[in-house]
Design brief:
Elements: H1 10-28, E1 69-71, E2 79-88, E3 91-96, E4 102-106, E5 110-115, E6 118-119, E7 138-143, H2 147-150, E8 152-160, E9 166-175, E10 180-188, E11 203-205, E12 211-214, E13 234-238, E14 260-263, E15 267-273, E16 280-285, E17 288-289, E18 291-296, E19 310-311, E20 331-333, E21 339-344, E22 357-361, E23 372-378, E24 384-390, E25 398-403, E26 409-413, E27 418-425
Antiparallel strand pairs: 1-2, 2-27, 3-4, 4-5, 5-6, 7-8, 8-9, 9-10, 11-12, 12-13, 13-14, 15-16, 16-18, 17-19, 18-20, 21-22, 22-23, 23-24, 25-26, 26-27
């Protein structure tokens, strides 16, 4: 696995971590070119309070407006940003249907359809009850690899229980264009919990036909990622009926749930199959720093909370920077960007961006209203060589990033109202 590791001594680890953090600030968080004058004016959004962490924090921002806007970027000049759909409520995930239509999940528990660039005002029916609490709710969505034949759609959500507890749950149903039918809950992650802490769950089908699913940890039990008797803080590998494949790395091993593919994760808000290598990649939130992109391998331990390249919310370093037997990240951020949706671009509309990773960012350095999207460039060995911050002027929480079948980029802003945006060459 291509991963950067810090030096052997404690002093060397601290020195290098600080140096890389400064470098990330120097070239990873440089604002992009200014949006052009087409941006709609409006009253500034006030700074948001940070409960329990001192005075109000945040940078005022304008309403996003109707666009379009033209931005300049470091390697793909003159990019047009336009609004495809607006008025969404905390949209979380986006999936393209074979006819070019899009399915969009809204965290409060609605599934929406965008057809020919128009948001259908009527939500899709058939979803089971969803508990929308803090950042929990309706989350990721994915099509079965044989969707054209079986019409199966999969999604993850926070399932409620009468006592107020919730569980990260995987369900599937058949989509007829307006409704979901034959809906089944095919996997419920253990344990049930209060909803405090990490609750994100992404899903993707691998080239092996298996479904990979992330589960969050943190909250009041930060050691969950290392507890292999539970599902939280893991990447799981499932068959399309929700059962554990017999060739999973820990099947038959005492003290391990058979569904576990990898462990030691905190809160994975992005999960993809690399379109060229076929490897599984995730983007993962640290606490106050230590956000990561990992190449996820079967049976590996990714360290949380023993190993972290970030600080705890109170300020001290969170764990060690490295430890034998725990895989290091491919990319990491200090300060945190609240890394979310992830893609590796392969299209022909932005030729200078081929092979680059794009990551949604929901805020930088614990400051509200600093969301944007980041682009990470790799060399031929898969090592990071530079990164660029895009759409910083919009100050929107970018929740999901997808490459469309047309080779353009689409992203969702996790706001209320939220937007579906499209990036294309301006000329």
């Amino acid at each position: 696995m291509n991963a950067r590791r810090v030096g052997e001594s404690a002093a060397g680890r601290v020195s290098l971590a600080l140096a890389v953090g400064v470098a990330a600030l120097a070239f990873g968080l440089v604002p992009g070119a200014a949006l052009d004058a087409q941006r709609a004016a409006g009253p500034a959004v006030p700074a948001q309070p940070a409960p329990g962490r001192g005075p109000q924090l945040g940078v005022p921002r304008q309403p996003i407006g109707d666009g379009p806007w033209t931005i300049d970027t470091a390697e793909q000049h003159k990019v047009r940003v336009s609004v495809v759909a607006k008025g969404l409520v905390n949209p979380w995930s986006l999936a393209f249907l074979p006819d070019g239509s899009m399915l969009v999940t809204e965290r409060p528990g609605r599934l929406r359809v965008v057809r020919d660039g128009v948001l259908d005002p009527t939500p899709v029916t058939g979803l089971p009850p969803v508990k929308a609490q803090r950042l929990s709710g309706l989350m990721d969505i994915a099509l079965h690899p044989r969707f054209a034949e079986n019409r199966l759609v999969y999604w993850t959500f926070s399932k409620p229980r009468e006592d107020g507890m919730l569980a990260t749950t995987l369900a599937r149903g058949r989509f007829d264009g307006k409704a979901l039918t034959d809906v089944k809950e095919i996997f419920v992650a253990e344990p049930w919990w209060t909803g405090a802490g990490g609750s994100a769950s992404r899903i993707v089908f691998g080239r092996d036909g298996m479904l990979y699913m992330t589960t969050g940890s943190a909250g009041d039990k930060v050691t969950e990622g290392q507890d292999t008797t539970i599902h939280k803080g893991k990447v799981l590998r499932l068959r399309d009926d929700g059962s554990a494949p017999p060739d999973n790395p820990f099947v038959g091993r005492a003290g391990f749930r058979p569904e576990i593919f990898s462990y030691g994760h905190r809160n994975s808000l992005g999960l993809i199959v690399h379109p060229v290598t076929g490897q599984l990649w995730n983007s993962e939130n640290g606490p106050n720093g230590g956000d990561e992109i990992n190449i996820v391998h079967a049976g590996k331990n990714y360290g949380w909370p023993v190993v972290s390249m970030g600080r705890s919310y109170e300020g001290p370093w969170q764990g060690k920077f490295a430890q034998d037997g725990m895989d290091a990240p491919l990319v990491y951020w200090m300060p945190a960007i609240a890394a979310s949706g992830l893609l590796v671009y392969t299209g022909d509309k932005f030729p200078t961006w081929r092979g680059n990773a794009f990551v949604g960012a929901m805020r930088v350095g614990e400051i509200p209203n600093t969301g944007h999207m980041q682009r990470v460039v790799f060399n031929d060995k898969g090592e990071e060589i530079r990164r660029e911050s895009l759409l910083t002027e919009l100050r929107q929480r970018v929740r999901d990033v997808k490459q469309g079948p047309d080779g353009l980029l689409y992203l969702l802003t996790d706001e209320n109202p939220g937007h579906l945006l499209k990036l294309e060459p301006a000329s």
